[in-house]
Amino acid sequence: MSERTLVLIKPDGVARGLTGEILRRIEAKGYVIAELKKTTATAEQLAAHYAEHEGKPFYQPLVDFMLSGPIVAAVAEGEGVIPGFRSLAGQTDPTTAAPGTIRGDLGRDWGEKVQKNLVHGSDSIESAEREIGIWFN
Ligand code: RTP
Ligand code: MG
Question: Is 65 annotated as a binding residue?
């Protein structure tokens, strides 16, 4: 089976009308969108998804942000898609994310507590399979 990763377009990306642009970049790179849905996260899904960050100072602002509006969940598929999508997304902080990346081209600091950085991408095979199970069943 080909490698799969979980992509979330966060509430800022959906609200700013960037869903199509972000999916376009994934497809233009050559990955396949295998699953796709617009949804609103539940507190339970976010507790599971962000379990590794529980207790960190940005945890509660992050969860509140993720609950603030609809998101788009997708499974992208292809050889190397896990590091490949993280490379397309760019560094976590959109202010310093490289131009050419989703966060670098489309994101910035909006002066808020949480880093609104448009997308999430799984960081390992284990995370990807676990996270896909949270958002798709
Ligand atoms: P992601 O999980 O969303 O793909 O992003 P990432 O791996 O680049 O970042 P991670 O360290 O996993 O953090 C998850 C999300 O929490 C927010 N964050 N804010 N210091 C901060 O203000 C801070 N650090 C992290 C970001 O929204 C980040 O994407
Ligand atoms: Mg992460």
Answer: no
Q: Of these residues, 25, 49, 116, 120, which one is catalytic?
A: 120
Delineate the domains of the chain, giving CATH numbers in brackets: 4-135 (3.30.70.141)
pLDDT digits 0-9 by tens, 40-77: 999 999 999 999 999 999 999 999 999 999 999 999 99
**Is-contact 57 3, C-beta < 8 A?**
no
Q: Is the pTM of this model over 0.90?
A: yes
Query: Do 41 and 71 contact (CB within 8 A), yes or no?
Result: yes
Pocket test for ligand 1, best of 10, 115, 127, 135 (most atoms within 8 A of CB): 115
Q: Is 108 annotated as a binding residue?
A: no
Whole-number Å distance, alpha carbon 123 to ligand 2 midpoint, is 6
Report ipTM (2 d.p.): 0.92
**Catalytic site includes residue 120:** yes
Q: Can you tell me the distance from the alpha carbon of 102 to that of 23, in angstroms, rounded to the nearest whole number?
A: 10
